Amino acid sequence: MNLLGINGSPRQGGNTDILLDKALEAAEESGWETEKIILNLLDISAPQEKEYYEVNSEGLSPIKDDMQIIYKKVNKCDGIILASPIFFGSLSAQTKIMIDRFQCVWVSKNLLKKEIFTQKKAGGFICAAASHRKDFFQNAKSIVRNLFQVIRAQYKAELFCPGLEEKGEVKNHPDFLESAYELGREIISKNQ
């Protein structure tokens, strides 16, 4: 079994990264293989409208960049955890660009009647923010839920961690770390 973690933070070793690692740790301790993608290290173009009306022979985006890697990994994983900080009231730009590039999957499924993602999986969402605004988390959550619906991931668990301003500050919050670990356990338990 394989659990895919996607880190949408531009800051490696930051709060989002630490929380995602903790969730993946729970899966590893249960014998699952894990993989973490750091979006900021990949070459992913912003949507160019092609995803809305043009797909390749696989039903995916015709833009040749690292999204092709992400499509394959998301399609074959057994569980997925998406992690993003809150930037300007929503997901990070890295996360939102990746999500927008899944429009081709929606087009293939709903307009071309071609299922690209056939395997159901459990999905979890981890989100860290400096502020304490619940509406920011809810905004981000609604976007992630839409993504999960398109990729056939059931939205099973979430963790919202407010008040994390400084890099690595989450290490001073054992409750958040424990909750991230439990989120990882919950995602894999849905697939056993």
How would you explain this protein's 3D organization?
With 192 residues, the protein is α/β, with parallel strands linked by helices. It has one domain (2-189): Flavodoxin domain (Rossmann fold, 3-Layer(aba) Sandwich). It contains seven helices and six strands, in the order E-H-E-H-H-E-E-H-H-E-H-E-H. Strands 1, 2, 3, 4, 5 and 6 form a six-stranded mixed β-sheet that branches. Helix 6 (134-150) links the parallel strand 5 (121-128) and strand 6. Helix 1 crosses helix 7. The longest helix is centred in the last third of the chain and has 17 residues, at 134-150. The model has no long low-confidence stretch (mean pLDDT 93).
Secondary-structure topology with pairs:
Elements: E1 2-7, H1 15-29, E2 33-38, H2 50-53, H3 67-76, E3 79-87, E4 90-91, H4 93-100, H5 103-110, E5 121-128, H6 134-150, E6 153-161, H7 174-189
Parallel strand pairs: 1-2, 1-3, 3-5, 5-6
Antiparallel strand pairs: 3-4
Helix pairs in contact: 1-7
Report the biggest beta sheet as strand number plus sense, adding barrel if it closes.
Answer: 6 strands, mixed
Number of domains: 1
Beta-strand percent range = 15-25%
For CATH, the homologous superfamily is named as Flavodoxin domain
Oligomer: single chain
**Helix/strand/pairing class, anyone?**
alpha/beta
C-alpha geometry: globular
According to DSSP, the number of beta strands is 6
Share in helix: 40-55%
| Straight-line distance between termini | 9 Å
Q: Could you please say which CATH topology applies here?
A: Rossmann fold
Q: Could you tell me the radius of gyration in angstroms?
A: 16 Å
Question: How many distinct helices?
Answer: 7
Give the overall average pLDDT. 93
| N to C succession of SSEs | EHEHHEEHHEHEH
Low-pLDDT ranges:
none
**CATH class category label:** Alpha Beta
